[in-house]
Amino acid sequence: MYSQGLTDAKGQEEPADLLAEFQAKIDREEKIEPRDWMPMAYRKTLIRQMSQHAHSEIVGQLPEGNWITRAPTLNRKMILLAKVQDEAGHGLYIYSATETLGVSRDQLTDELLTGKAKYSSIFNYPTPSWADMGAIGWLVDGAAIMNQVPLCRCSYGPYARSMVRICKEESFHQRQGYEIMTVLARGTQAQKDMAQRALNRTWWPSLMMFGPSDKNSTHSAQSMKWKIKRFSNDELRQKFIDATVPQAEHLGLTIPDPDLKWNEETGHYDHGEINWDELFQVIKGNGPCNKERLQARIDAHENGEWVREAAQTYQQKQNNQHNEAA
Ligand code: BYC
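Above: inputs. Below: predicted complex with benzoyl coenzyme A.
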């Protein structure tokens, strides 16, 4: 979608002194702000990652929205509704932060709806039981926190600042998911089985949220040099596994990986091979729910046309009144 090279918008080579000063600023841990000079490739990388992140928050409402009307109690409904609304808010903060890079919200929306832009693979899986709400909160929001806490120190100021509040909310989401799993794991055998099946479904796709292995990650090296990313995909995935295995043990549930075992020497859990072909298939649009998710966003956009028109007409009236009064 966005090409990457150290040339500016007109294809001219960028001045070496500006590039050197830019990198020095990053190395001094100073934030880059919207009006500062930045290499075109840095801008493009941010637009790519931030817009994909915002799209993920928006599409991420769908698997959980599926359960709002069916949550088992009024309290559970209210909590889930609040969580899904938080995700909408996260999408909006990150879209706004992305707009500071000179791209319009309409353009970003268009790229999502035409299938040009990616969003996280995890949201292309189905959520057939209530326990999936627990597994998503615990694992998906848990993985999101692991990935996003370092983004609070991202070199681009607006992205880093938007992450601070998002991480606080994600932390609440992770706890609500773990609490759902705790209740089910301590319930009847049927409830425990339901929780185990949700863990079986969600475990491997959660590990894929961190992206391809480092050797196949096209952007990591440059993004780490620019301090957009602070840790590699594999490092964050390992941190997540190490933090999550004891939580599963506490629940009395089994992580669906026969090769998972503590390695005394490395001080980390060794894990089984991830099915990378599955990740790339889902990214390409061939996951179990890709078509359904995209269609839901297209429908929402088309059904919201009248709201956008009404808002524009209202704004026009306000402008006219203001001009008449002046
Ligand atoms: N799914 O070079 P790499 C949430 C793509 S929202 C799809 O390693 P990078 C939540 C990647 O884009 C969670 N695509 O890339 C919401 C690249 O393709 P392009 C979303 C993936 O950017 C609601 C190519 O593969 N979080 O938590 O250095 C409810 C090569 O990858 C995936 C964020 O977006 C994937 N899993 O690293 C609950 C966090 N992985 O662009 C929860 C911000 C890789 O060249 N993003 N790709 O065509 C990031 O931290 C980074 O973008 C990633 C990937 C770690 C995801």
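The CA atoms of residues 71 and 298 lie 26 Å apart.
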